[in-house]
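ESCALATION

Customer reports they have been waiting on this structure for their group meeting. Please prioritize. Original submission:
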Amino acid sequence: MSRVRESIKMILLGGLLGVFMTTNFLVLNYGQQKDVHKYKVVSPQYNISQKQAINRSTGSSVRILSMNAGMMAISSLSGTYITYRGEYFILTSAHGIVGDCSTIMIMHIEETITCERLVAIDREKDYAILKIPEMKSRKAIRIPQALARWKKSYNLLDETYYTGYPNSIGPTTWTGTIAGFTGDYLILQSYAWSGSSGSGVFDERGELIGIIMALDVGQSEFGIEVLENFVIVVPVWNIDFATVLME
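Update from on-call: job pushed to the front of the queue and completed.
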């Protein structure tokens, strides 16, 4: 009976995923030019370094779907495509990983691949690293070369960029500024929403400074409210890349 129940759960989950993907396909493609994401649309007003930052952000961003048949759950989040010594990985948030590697899909527009191995997951610091095959439509960020350095990349009011899938819409690219620090986390003044989690955040030089973790909440006379412009980021110094570098 347990096998029958598991089979039913998988069928229902597959149906739910189908509805989820179909709905998102219709939303993402309604009224859009078919190949709009293939065009270079970075404004000429930006300098060379800023253009590099924007191109790295848009070129490495992916969407991730994580599923759990037992919980009947599907989680949508964002991630960054990275590489080290010819191997390819996805850096994302741990809180959006609800199942094992076999139930994770990584996608960008028309390309979809599956997870090969869950290399690292830290639910306390909130990051995960997935081993994947090479993606033809994405340009990987090289580590450790592109990782931010403390003295150059974490100055107050420095401009930042991230590309992700807030509210499962995207990819969309957002700017922000470094507002401060709280404990071991970085605070940005920007915009984010559910689905943005795991997006790579880049500084003005195109170096990876962290990944989006969460939004903050505040109390007002109307009760508890989400502060969508108060974005909490896991900085790269809190991510243990040794699991990748030592492979």
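Sent to customer with the following note: The mean pLDDT is 82.
Escalation resolved.
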